[in-house]
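Troubleshooting entry. Yesterday's outputs looked truncated, so today I'm pasting the complete records for two proteins to confirm everything comes through intact. If either block looks cut off, that's the bug. Protein one:
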Amino acid sequence: MARIHPTAVVDPRAELADDVEIGPYVVITGEVQLASGCVVGPFCRLEGPAVIAEGNRFTSHCSIGAPPQDLSYKGEPTRLEIGPGNWFREHVTVHRGTVKGGGVTRIGGNGLFMVGAHVAHDCHVGNGVIFANGGTLAGHVEVGDYATIGAFSAVHQFCRVGPYAFLGGFTVATKDCLPFMRTVGARPARCFGPNTVGLERKGFAAERREALKKAWRILRNPKLTTTEAVIQLEAQLGHMGDVQLLISFIRASKRGVVLSRG
């Protein structure tokens, strides 16, 4: 049987794996599924419908699966899905989806969400992400695999953060943030080129890093429009998988991308 502290309140609709640990003063309401190896620390509140995969840790005072902060939400049955192996530190908040946004908030696996991070309704967050203290997503944001959201940064609703992107502390992103690149600053944020140190730490070979540097030199050329720069990227570096991902990301943007030239 799951180890449940006597002060915890667990809804009978919840489904807990046999080795789940529930700490003091935890409240679990609704249809919450906790898979093997999950640990819920003191004073956390989990609300369903929510499906939480194996090995997730909630340190303390987390609010996971609460209703969305959206005035259009009228209590419809939306849900939260969390992949395996994440660590949610103190006071992290994650909200369920809305009907108009697809009905689900989704987080991948093996992420670290530091103190006070927030994932709003209908966000789709990839694998291996890092949210530093106070990193915040508005609704409908997409975050790619292995992206880093810096401390006290905020991402505007409907924006995208590309795979391996790095947002520096206190960044305000109101446009899409390019994959592999460093985006820093508030109103306007600016892109400062490839996150070379971070990419090397993640195992990117020198050839891949050099291709991204060349791509950045083309993108930041003040004599080219973004459309012209993308055409040049395709012609010169389109055979490189990372550059092709970068091109696809730019072409799919609906809000525009954070870019600085000159």
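Protein two, checking that the full record survives here as well:
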Amino acid sequence: MAQAIQGSGGTTATTKEPWYKVLYIQVLIAIALGVLLGWYDPATGKAMKWLGDAFIALIKMMIAPIIFCTIVHGIASIGDLKKVGRVGLKALVYFEVVSTVALLIGVLVGEIIRPGAGFNADPSKLDASKVASYANKAAADSTVAHILSIIPKSFLDPFATGDLLQVLLISILTGVVVTGLGARAKGVNDAIDTAGQIFFRIIGIIVKLAPVGAFGAMAFTIGEYGIGKVYDLAWLVGTFYVTSILFVLVVLGTIAKFAGFSILRFLAYIKDELLIVLGTSSSETVLPQLMTKMRRLGASDSVVGLVVPTGYSFNLDGTNIYMTLATLFLAQAVGADLTVGQYVTIILVAMLTSKGASGVTGAGFITLAATLAAIPNNPVPVAAMTLVLGIDKFMSECRALTNLVGNGVACVVISRWEGELDTAKLNEVMAHPVAIGTHITDETPQPMGTDGKVAAAE
């Protein structure tokens, strides 16, 4: 594979790297080996779970400090709170519009395909104990509780718990205050920038373990649930995957076309990250790499620092599709007829419950329980979720993949809206996605100028 190397004279040379050293090939091999192990020796496959858990834990320990440093430095470097507000407002509007489209697509596909029709499940015979923990978490997540949970117990608590919404809150507040202090806070801003670069380099080391994590996670998944679980509910799994693929190609593809790039080339550009997410079922594992790649793609550093971390809490297209499609599947499976009012409630509740459902494995299942619990006169018991419990791990992978692509596209689009997208760099990277866009996890963000754009090297 090709790797771009900067020569001393400013020219870019391309060298060949052995195929077995390429990250996405290593991850592909690891996933295949994990599937084989889980299939032929389920007990050993389940014992490999700790490898996937360890890799995700290593990534998660760095997510909160990276988001904090990136957002604070991004806001302070912009130096204009009006611009910060403008970018934030554009991002939120974009997130809500696209997320609503995703929810509506889930409803539309559920009504047309009707994957649960003919399932004839008897709610009285379902074992509610299997989903009791999810139901309890959902019951505690009322609208008021959801809002209050955004406020951390202390300034440092989000760094210990890893709650993305809480991290976003303290990051934005800190960034605004640092900006308001002006020159007096320059030393603080520089220190935060340096800390961010250190954290990115740590992630660059950790991500080299992605094949090991992917192997362990996939071996456990197949060993624990078996491929047979997919066969049992293949119609729902297939419907969800096809719907998500069409959403990416048609909806996000159309948005990308208007923004001046090809969704297929974009997918090729982030293939390493997609494969890591496929293996780990968590989009958080590639958040730092995605931010770095968006900078390399030509998006401004300030927009990347604000949009990508925020999108991980507010722009979850895959989770939104899953919630409405799975809700309709469960209603059809138990023979329940939903009213128009209940449909509207499902969409409105899902818009709220999906916020903060970060890239952690299983978060979508909890939001589904919260959505079901909030439907008035609900004819679909939460116990019906046992019908999809066995395949949720397979669904989680698709949710995470769709969320990742959606956040990448959003970053490029909003950067273009702000007039801060380097279209020449975008076209060059899209034309040569392998040569330009590979093996950048060791890189750190470039310093920014006061206008929020990447400063030229001296």
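Both blocks look complete. Sanity check on protein two: Residues 1-14, 435-458 have pLDDT under 50 and may be disordered.
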